[in-house]
Amino acid sequence: MRFIVFVKATKDSEAGLMPSEELLGAMAKFNEEMIKAGVMLDGNGLQPSSKGARVRFEGNKRTVNDGPFAETKELVAGYWILQVKSKAEAIEWIKRCPNPHNVDSEVEIRQLFELEDFGESEAIDHHRRLDQQMKS
Question: Where are the domains of the chain?
Answer without folding.
Answer: 2-135
